[in-house]
Amino acid sequence: MSSSGSIFKPRKSALSSRSPTPAASSISFSHQNEPKTTSHFKDTALELTKNENYCISKLPALPAVFERSQGSQLINAYSDHESNYSLVIDEDAIHVWSYKSADHTPLSIQFPIERSSVIPLAILTKPSSGVSQDPGLVIIDSSSGLVKFYESVQHAPALGLINNKSLELKLDINSQKGEYITLAENVEPAGIVVATSWKRCILVSLRDFKSKPQLSSVELLSNTKSKYLSFIFGSETTNEIFDEIVSIRSGRIINHGMTQEIFILDSSGGFHIVTYQLLSASGSPYVDKKKSYSHNLTTYFKNSIDGYLPGTNLDLSFLDLWPSAEHENIYVGLCYVKESYKSPNSQNLLLLTMRIDPTGVLPYGSHKLSRYNPEEASINKPRLFLPKPGKTAFVSIDNSMIITDINISYVEESAASVSYYTPRWEDVVRLRSNIDILGYGYEDQTFNNNPSAILLTRNNGVLRIERFPTSIDGGDSTDPLLIVKSHIEQAIFYFKSEEIEFDVVQQFSDETVLQAVSQIIEEITSSSSPYLPSFLPSITDFLALKVELFERFITYTQRNFPSVFPIAVSTIVDALEKNDFALQLWIQIEAEKAYSNTLKSTLEQVIIETQVVAANEDTLRKFFSQGINSVNEVFTKFVEKLLADDFSLPILTSLIVQATYYGILKNEIRYLADNELIPLRKIWVFETPLLIRIEQVFTSEYCEGGDEVKTQKSKEDLIKLCEVLYYFVTSAIQYMQLFDANNDQLKEYVQWYKGRNTHWISALLKQDLIQQGIEITEKYHDFSSLAQILEFQKKRLEDIYGEDSFEVDSLLQRYVYYFERFKYEFASLLYDYYVKNDQIQALLLSFTNYKFYLEEYLEKNAKKTSKFSWIRYLLDENFNKASKVLVESASKFEAGDNLDNKEVKYSLAKLAVIAARGTGHSDLDVNMDGDGSSYLLETENSLTKIKSQKNLFSSLIKNYGGEVQLLKFDNILKGFKNSHIGNGIAQSLLSRSFDQLVNNKQLKTIDLINWLTLLKPSIIEDRGFGLALKVAALVDDKQLFEYYTRLIWLRLLTIGDDWSLLDKANLKISTDEHIKEKVRGTVLFKTFKEINLDNKLINQLELLLNSKGVFENAENDSVAQEVNNTMVEKLTGYFQKYDFVQWVISIKEEARGENE
Predict the structure, then answer these.
(1) Which residues of 139-171 are buried (b: 16+ CB within 10 A; e: fewer)?
(2) Where is the Nucleoporin Nup133/Nup155-like N-terminal domain (predicted)?
(3) Which end of the chain is more exposed for a tag (fewer CB within 10 A), N or C?
């Protein structure tokens, strides 16, 4: 809907003779900016609500009687469209006033009445002359039948006619037998027709043939029998609609004004046309019975109502009937049709269109009023009002008024055709339940009046429902989208109208509601709503108005459309936040007096560069009224521009805080946060790099530089901006975790968040904002940062008051609170903090009452905690877990874990296994046999490797007096390597692990073997090869075991001993003892002794000897392969040159003999 399509449809001025039509191009203003008025009562009537189709206003003229006791004594009321007067009845008097007066306290004329149990009926009559606007008044006692007539309400008191008996008439009412007057209608010029409870109708003439006041009566309809019998036998029940007269109207006036038709309708469908001759030869009026006729409407409609199967026995009860103002003999009726098949009390409300003439009744169509709820029983009987020109029907139902257009143009097209009644447009106006309606009236369309219904209320004055004229051939105004959109708009733009109930009762599809929500959002945001001006003089006021509208929009949607609210609210909140964001930004720009012009100039430049709106002399106003949808893009570039210009960081921070905290975060928390029914959505700020820029400003202002103490304002900005960052980032992470968990961007966000949040909290701590930091981290479940704050505060309190102080004790209770409230979620991140900051003692020994959380944490983070978790297990005497963790920890090659630590761990693991045996709990690990032997063996094997490396290392450094720093690799090459190994080979095979060896780190198996076998045997007291074989024996992989052991034997046989010396020690020149001494001095002999002739290892030696030096390389290292090949050639030479195998066997046997 464009702004040019105004909802205002004022009447034409008094100078125009044409009927009222819509104002095609009038400018519309909301009730926020101009007094609510209708065109006829401009500047006087209070406009309660308005849309394209109708306007509801509160008329200003209200007598003082309404003010007394807030109208509690008022009983009945009535409004007359002919004279523009109304009357109201209380217990003491009838009060008459001009309800169209512009005076807020109009002249009210009182006619006292006698106090009795029966309240009289009162009807206003036409003025006595064509010039006067002063109506007359007829007062009728509904019980006694006494009629009083005052020709002029204004002159009667002045002339002393209030108690004049000359204009009184006693009607023949059989009140003693229960008859009473139920209805009175003005049918002038004939007079007043009253109907009784016995269905009698009596015409009271007010004037004689000279038009002078004179009362007389004539009975128009007599039907005493049934009602009298009902009175005797009591056949009626109070729960049913009585068979009574429901409508009396004046029909045609013909024969030059001499003949008048009066039609009467009862609830059972009895229709009567009474032809009344106003003047006769004798001068007395009379009823022309020959031209009068009757029909039963029910008979004609039982098979002619749309929506019911032909032949259905319908139970119809007529409520009202009006003649068409434009078509002769055409009538529109209102009736109930019972639908007992739905529920016992279910009934629908129908409008019927028909032609009635002396020949019969021709139904034209029927229509169920869609805005009527058949399940809600009405307290009062519905009434129909069909003001001229008869194109709009008003149907009153208690506190509701259904308004529907009537299109009976087909009557003119073909009098013989029958068509369904199809109203063009229908809507319902509902008043609040506390509005008590005393009476009704209506207004015909005139040169300065639209067709209207008048409602006189007890405590809210006179209300007018005015229907704007529309073209029958226009757009589809029955579209549910337009109707629901109109109701929402009225509710949010006219929310101050306490008389109107804006909540909808009609059901609309979710799709229709969401479409209406979307259109309203767009129209308000772009200022194209017909309820809004294009702009206001104040940008602040205009944006504040929009923010208020969106807030009411959310409340209304939640209350009226709960099924779509979770979906709709996110869209509305986005629009609210953008407008509020813009509002807060503008407020802050205006507040920064010294920088305001610079900021406005920069913002205008960015808007023009972004091309959000066309550049003109009022770019800023145009942007804030029409370009709010682009506020994210504009503000992001605005911040970037200010950063590039080296603008004041404190001022820029204040701008960001004002806009994001008050414009976005407050609304997020108020409407969306912590509501599980509302789906997560990606906040609109993430459409640009705005968050990154905000964090950049935060870092520059609060994280960089020294420990400068900020001003109070700066501290407040710090707290708010910190929470903004937390909310935005955590919301984005939650959204991606739910909808896009596999996106790499999620990992980046999480990593970025974990890297930055500690800086945000550190900024708070630097400014001593501890409590605020606790509140933020607790709110967003950042327990890592919460632990950081708590530990920071704890250390501070310990330094000031001591570890055992009351202050520290109180803080520890805070820990307990978090353990209890957040349970493992908090505990695990507190433990993470301890691990990260190497506070192992605090981790293992603090908060023992929640040890079960620590056990869970150690179990779930076994790898991360294996360095120390065993301590807790040992303290808890859980030896199985302790030994397992110790072994796993010691077996890892981790930075910072030296050989001594590993030895301790394996030693403790060994003790733990032994202890577990003692307690009988060695069956908890699946890899452990019944008594823990295999696990014990693993620890012992690992200790063997460690001891071998330590023996090697200690042998090396003893040459330097234990000074590790003196041990250099060059010294190794010069003084410790085996002379049969070249420097290049030693450099390649040993240097890669030299640093680990020197730094007391555990070596890999092959590196340890290299060190034990490539150095001079004497360095390790000839035990190197034996230790190397022991290490190789621990290898589980069969192929590697065979390779390592044969490699060691190969090196031992080729570079371990000088075989030429043994070959020269023959019996010709040596004794047995000498040879024996030589043999026992060989490295081979000592190796046999070291390994205790382990069969597994000896077998590999025998396989090497039997293969005649054939050796399969298992290493990819080319240098190692070259060395191996060289040694194989050397060994092959030994086979040829010496009786090599026999010497090896003899040495082995010598070693065996000594062992035995």
Answers:
(1) bbbbbbbebbbbbbbbebeeeebeeeeebebeb
(2) 49-464
(3) C
Question: For residue 1058, what is the DSSP state?
Answer: -
pLDDT of residue 232: 44
Nearest of 394, 500, 497, 402 to residue 454 by alpha carbon: 394
**pLDDT tens-digit readout, 499-539:** 999 998 888 899 999 999 999 999 999 999 999 988 889 99
3 state DSSP class of 335: strand
| Dist. CA 589–CA 838, nearest whole Å | 48
- What per-residue confidence (pLDDT) applies to 491? 93
Sequence-distant (6+) residues with CB within 8 A of 335 are 316, 317, 318, 319, 349, 350, 352
pTM equals 0.75
CB 350 within 8 A of CB 364: no
Q: Are 1138 and 1007 in contact (CB under 8 A)?
A: no
- Do 1094 and 1033 touch, CB atoms closer than 8 A? yes
How many CA atoms are closer than 13 Å to the CA of 944, on its beta-carbon side? Answer: 19
Residue 272's pLDDT is what? 95
CA distances (Å), origin 1053, targets 424, 471, 1083: 113, 116, 9
Listed residue (586, 610, 615) closest to 599, CA to CA? 586
DSSP readout, 403-469?
Answer: EEE---THHHH-TT-------S-EEEEEE-TT--EEEEEEE--BTTB--EEEEEESSS-EEEEEEPP
Those residues whose C-beta lies under 8 Å from the C-beta of residue 790, and which sit 6 or more positions away, are: 774, 811, 814, 815, 830
User: What b/e sequence results for 1081-1113 when a residue is b if at least 16 CB atoms lie within 10 Å of its CB, and e otherwise?
Assistant: ebbbbbbbbbbeebeebbebbeebbeeebebeb
B/e letters for 266-301, b = 16+ CB within 10 Å, e = fewer, are bbbbbbbbbbbbbeeeeeebebeeeebbebebbebb
Q: Nearest 5 degrees, angle CA 461-CA 385-CA 125?
A: 70
Residue 318's nearest CA partner among 292, 291, 297 is 297
CA–CA dist 1039, 1020 (Å, integer): 28
- C-beta atoms surrounding 330 within 10 Å: 19
CA-based angle 1111:1114:1118, to the nearest 5? 95
CA–CA distance, 1107 with 1144 (Å, rounded to integer): 15
**Per-residue exposure over 576-600, b if at least 16 CB sit within 10 Å of its own CB, e if not:** bbbbbbbbbbbbbbeebeebeebbe
The per-residue pLDDT for 473 is: 44
844-883 pLDDT tens trace: 999 989 999 999 999 899 888 888 888 888 888 888 887 7
Q: State CA 846 to chain mean position distance.
A: 41
**DSSP codes of every residue in 1059-1077:** HHHHHH--TTT--HHHHHH
**Tally of CA atoms within 13 A in the half-sphere of 1065 that contains its CB:** 17
- Inter-residue contact 333 to 351 (CB < 8 Å): yes
Q: How far apart are CA 700 and CA 702, in angstroms?
A: 6
Average pLDDT in the chain: 83
CB 479 within 8 A of CB 116: no
What is each CA distance from 756 to 652, 731, 776, in whole angstroms?
21, 16, 15
Residue labelled with tokens 């190969």: 1050
Q: Which residues pair with 1080 in a beta bridge?
A: none
Q: Which among 33, 44, 48, 42 is positioned nearest to 529, based on CA atoms?
A: 33
CA 750 to CA 733: how far, in whole Å?
Answer: 7
DSSP 633-695: HHHHHHHHHHHHTT--HHHHHHHHHIIIIIIIIHHHHHHTTT-TTSPP---GGGGTTHHHHHH
| Sign of the torsion formed by the C-alpha atoms of 1048, 1051, 1057 and 1061 | positive
* Positive/negative CA dihedral, 133, 139, 142, 145: negative
Pick the closest to residue 620 from 639, 599, 636, 637 (CA basis).
Answer: 599
Q: Is the pLDDT reported for residue 375 higher than 90?
A: no
**Of how many residues is the chain composed?**
1156
